[in-house]
Amino acid sequence: MSNNASINGGVGSGISHDSTKKHANGTAVYVDDIRVPENALHLYAFPSPHAHAEITAMDLSEVESADGVALVLTADDITGMNDVSPTHSGDDPLLADGKVMFQGQAIFAVAADSLNQARAAAQLAKISFKPLPAILSINEALAQDSFVFTPQVMAQGDAEGELKNAKNTLSGKLNIGGQDHFYLEGQASLVIPQEDGDVLVHCSTQHPSEVQTHVAQVLGVERNAVTVEVRRMGGGFGGKETQASPWAALAAMTAQKTGRPAKMRLVRDDDMIMTGKRHPFQISYEVGFDDAGIVTALDMTLVSDCGHSLDLSRAINDRALFHADNCYYIPNMRVTGLKCRTNKVSNTAFRGFGAPQGMMAIEEVMDQVAQKLGKDPLAVRQANLYNASNNTTHYGMVVEDNVAPEIIAQLKTASNYDKRRAEIEEFNANNEFVKKGIALTPLKFGISFTTKFLNQAGALIHIYADGSVQLNHGGTEMGQGLFTKVAQIVANTLNIDLEHIKITATNTGKVPNTSPTAASSGTDMNGMAAKLAAEKLIDRLRQFAIEHYGVAEGDVKFLPNRVKVGKQTFSFKEFVNAAYMERIQLSATGFYATPKINFDPETGKGRPFLYFSYGASVSEVEVDTLTGEAEVVRVDILHDVGRSLNPTIDLGQIEGGFIQGVGWLTNEELFWNDDGALATHAPSTYKIPTMGDRPDIFNITLFDNENMEDTVYKSKAVGEPPFMLAISTYRAIWQVTKGNLDAPATPEAILKACGEPS
Amino acid sequence: MSDTTQNIKFLLGEEEVTIELNDASTCNMTVLEFLREKKHLKGTKEGCGEGDCGACTVVVVEEIGDDLYYSAVNSCIQFLPTLDGKQLLSVEHVQDHPAISALVDNNASQCGFCTPGFTMSLVAMYENGSDSISDDLAGNLCRCTGYGPIINAAESMGTGATDDPENNPDLVARLKALKQNKSNPDTGSYFAPTSIAELAETYASNPDATLLAGGTDVGLWVTKQHKLLEKIIYLGNVVELKTISETDDYITIGAGVTYSQAIDIINKNYPDYGEIIRRTGAKQVRNVGTIGGNIANGSPIGDSPPVLIALGAHIVLRCGDKTRELPIESFFIDYGKQDIAAGEFITSIVIPKNQPLKAYKISKRNDQDISAVLGAFSIAVNDGVVSHARIAYGGMAGTPKRATACEKALVGNSFDMATVTSAMQAMESDFTPLSDMRASASYRMNVAKNLLKKCYLEMGGA
After folding, report:
1. Do B450 and A233 touch (CB under 8 A)?
2. From the CA atom positions of chain A, what is the Rg in Å?
3. How many CB atoms lie within 10 A of CB A336?
4. Helix or strand (DSSP H, E) at A199
5. Which residues of chain B neighbour A689 with C-beta distances below 8 Å?
6. Judging by beta carbons within 10 Å of its beta carbon (0-12, 13-18, 19+), is residue B352 exposed, middle or buried?
């Protein structure tokens, strides 16, 4: 129990994630763990074996009559719309209708008594295809003008003119690979049929409202007939933002048509083959700079491989453009984004949402400039940073909260950068084939959805007459600790111990029209909505006290777990019960819409972000130049989370995000066969970091800062930014290889950059 | 057939479970499926269904010679009948274990889906002790934490001593009793012979059966290729296959010896081979996987075969009453084709001692990955001249294969950079590697050449 001075578990305390114990002892319930009735059906979707083809004939009669099969679903069975595109682009059919656009596209689905029966039955399908030419690379797409959306340009100054005037110029290209989310829990939905043909959807999703929308759209019913609930996900990382709804919709169709509960869970291989990933990018640039390494002009093109449909690719490619400056002021800059349509699975949101690729582009430029001039790359980076007079981005937003110079300076000292760099030079001179590299890279990441309407959130708080509280909001829990942080915020606002606040599953029936838990904005938005709801309750309770006890406003004080009214002190419970007896409403909603933001894609100008998060990292690597094997030996991080709501959770996000970024840039290689089939569709072939890949020396420090904008308790978002700290690892490897180093820097890519054996 | 031969019995936590092996599908049931679907114990998660992520980790307890052995294994690729006579612990059975409080106290979870698997790996580490946290946990993938808090949990957990039978005499007694009454299931679809003679007889009369050792490959035929194995002969109870012996000149390892059991003697004799084994699979795989299985499945990218070829190892095979011995390199004829007759099986691997050895495994990820290329070098130099060279590679051809042209370019020549360079060139006539998702043909060739150079430099060349 708390003492009188303060509450337990309030804002700023580094308490554990609310479910840690349940995680460790196996009692935390995920969708696939919900006990289903014996009559439940299990679904399997049959994946296209072709990257691009017409379906000329389809005979599913043997599938229908196979053991255990209750239902077979094709595009013709869809009573509503055959589309699950998140931006209503109409190019994401739930089930293929006449043609297939990528290998792995769902053609039909089978519902049977067991998943094994459904899968076995599906193999009995007789389908004829007429293969069509497939576009399988960015270069093929560019050659054929195959795009999912129009180009976007953001520019300031005169890049073209100033490139001509520049003292030095360089041009180059960089290929950046995609990444599978590899959430440990695959996509899963369980649909329980309700009265009137309504459905209750248990779904592992970051975007319950979109699942609701898509299910309603596919079933051809109003959204009020669909309730989506999410207690927790076994990881999301962006992969359950738009990629969850197809499976929910198929299960919902089954439940609606059969009246039986229906579950659809993708096993690992199907999940990796059938769902979208991080976008591969191809970068090309021309840069002009002076002898000091100051970049005077930059013309850059960022081309993304969007796969077969639009999905969120417009916003993702835009975010790459928004971050192609990173922390650097470039007076004459033009950056063009091209969004290629290819015959691959449609790429989607993934932690960073395009920004990592944009930052990779500009960090490549910085190193190439330094290399050309023979300068310390860090000195070149520092010389180009935004400062008080040069603070306008290429999209016209003024950088008002710039702490990058201070973070870099502090980290440079704390990590002994200069001394270690000298030691590494000496080491490399004395070692024949093992070489070391070191690099420091900063980051600046814009916080807010660049799609303006998404910047809204709601919360619902009930106080029961015994003083206990139930908390609900539109954000979803995927492990990031959102539920814990929002509960801490409510504890603080109500000034009661955290243990009285019950965290509840996200449910579209409680808070409607929610935005995805994405863009790192979960706590900023839902935390603020919950705070506003709690403040409403406090205001109501204060008013009750004034009227009921006849005291002045200043005589009502909400102390830790107590309320002081004049000379009387009540426990929170007693006080709440008194309010209940006087018929005071003890339930409130809160609503938050992020202020100040706007962006005009026509002009490429605006203020898309409320604020920026900052950070920097130093990585030291050891590379075997005979084999291309690389090891990250030491990492130092200094990262800005504003005033931390929970340092334990924030440090966890930083460390986890960093390691996930290292995976993207080193071992995680997606490999497609020549026919467009993904060959790396399981952990045996797709290698995410394991424990041994964590650097032995790994120092993470929170930068002492507070958000200058009016965010919840002056905190900053933390979900995505640390991912981009991993760029220093890639740059450190590049310090060894130089040359054209494709990302991911696998042993093969590194050896290729190092050169042939001699 | 009597009832006793159709049942298996094991402890699920404290509960004695009897399973009737009445059809092939029961014999093909994975331990994970049993836990989640039959027992509704949902704490154990499916992450990949191929033994590569560790989310499904459980602990299997065996009583051997009055001692208790706790092994973390991947339940997604273990078949239920292999639990006969053992104890199965899932996370539901260790609710008060220090592993759980260590994870909680160190904030070692985010999304939590991998966490029960970590709990179970930690339970095994707690009971057995651990030489290396990172080695013991490399088979548990976490996508959220970056592993730091999990390492802290493992470090702070300490170790227990329940593997000391004095601390758990009841369990020892119960497992002993189970073993004494243990059947030798012979149901027509699942056989578990206990002696080599019995195995030879069973296999000779059922040459169409699938031999099952650790199941780290065979398990995937069921979970990934969705095959139904109609007949399984389980090798885990054949005592003679489990033995390791050593003379002044040879180490003999039974074909059913697991990597975990073999690693100490191999490390003592050949540290480079020990390091290869440390990097073969992860703990959950090494606890059940066998060197014999790694050879018998004939994969061109198995980790042990190239090393054993370089060392000049032999294998002993048996068919019915007949045994024969052959150099391991002769076993691998072509891709998918080995020198083994119907009903014939490997009984042991005979490794000569005191050979020179350097071995290198190249993979995208250091731990728990499959080789792109594995190079093994047994090179001896006398007075500056190469007197002996046996060089073998995995991942360079349809089989693990010697680099004979390369060897020829070395032997009899002075061990210098010029010789090494010509031997590197000679490799092009030894191999025409393939491109696949693990590596391109050109990388494989380049790195194969460079490994010889690396070997040369590390042997003191300049």
Report:
1. no
2. 27
3. 18
4. strand A199-203
5. 146-147, 365
6. middle
Mutation site for A-interface testing, chosen from B39, B143, B369, B393 by largest number of A Cβ within 10 Å: B143
Look at residues A424, A448, A443, A449 and name the one whose alpha carbon lies nearest to residue A434: A424
Strands (E), B194-341: 210-212, 232-234, 244-246, 250-254, 314-319, 322-327, 332-334, 337-338
Confidence label for B180 from pLDDT (cuts 50, 70 and 90): confident
Is B148 in contact with A657 (CB distance < 8 Å)?
no
Which pair of tokens denotes residue B376? 């093994």
- The minimal CB distance from B446 to the residues A657, A687, A751 is found for A751
User: Which pLDDT score is estimated for A353?
Assistant: 98
DSSP string, A482-504: HHHHHHHHHHHHHTS-GGGEEE-
Coil/strand/helix, residue B58: strand
Average pLDDT over residues B363-382: 97
3-state secondary structure of A732: helix
Write out the two tokens for B377. 């070098």
Residue B245 pairs with which residues in a beta bridge?
B252
Q: Is B5's pLDDT higher than 90?
A: no
- Alpha carbon B354 to its chain centroid, in Å, reads 24
Burial of A218-247, coded b for 16+ CB within 10 Å and e otherwise, reads: bbebebebbbbbbbbbbbbbbbbbbbbbbb
Contacts of residue A414, defined as CB under 8 A and 6 or more positions apart, other chains included, come to: A636, A638, A699, A701
Q: How far apart are CA A643 and CA B282, in angstroms?
A: 41
Count of alpha carbons within 13 angstroms of residue A613, beta-carbon side: 32
Question: At CA A324, angle to CA A295 and CA B365, rounded to 5?
Answer: 110
User: Minimal CA–CA distance to A357: which of A142, A236, A516, A179?
Assistant: A179
Tell me, what DSSP letter sits at residue B338?
A: E
Q: Are A227 and A86 in contact (CB under 8 A)?
A: no
pLDDT at B4 over 60: no
Mutate to test the interface with B, among A17, A23, A183, A272 (most CBs of B within 10 A): A23
Q: In chain B, what residues touch A652 (CB-CB under 8 Å)?
A: 107, 110, 144-146, 149
Mean pLDDT of B200-212: 97
A2 falls in which pLDDT band (50, 70, 90)? very low
Task: Give the global pTM.
Answer: 0.97
Q: Model confidence at B188, in pLDDT bands (50, 70, 90)?
A: confident
**Distance between CA A350 and CA A337 in Å, rounded?**
18
Tokens of B428: 């092009």
Under 8 Å between Cβ of B262 and B236? no
Q: Please report, as a single letter, which amino acid is at residue A316.
A: I
Under DSSP, is residue A711 helix (H, G, I), strand (E, B) or coil? coil
Distance CA B95, CA B92 (A): 6
- Cα first-last separation, chain A: 70
Domains and CATH numbers, chain A: 2-28+456-593 (3.30.365.10), 34-133+181-274 (3.90.1170.50), 281-450+600-754 (3.30.365.10)
Closest residue in A to B29 (Cα) is: A116
Structure confidence at residue A562 (pLDDT)? 97
pLDDT at B2: 39
> Given CB atoms, is A185 within the 8 Å cutoff of chain B?
yes
Mean pLDDT of A470-478: 98
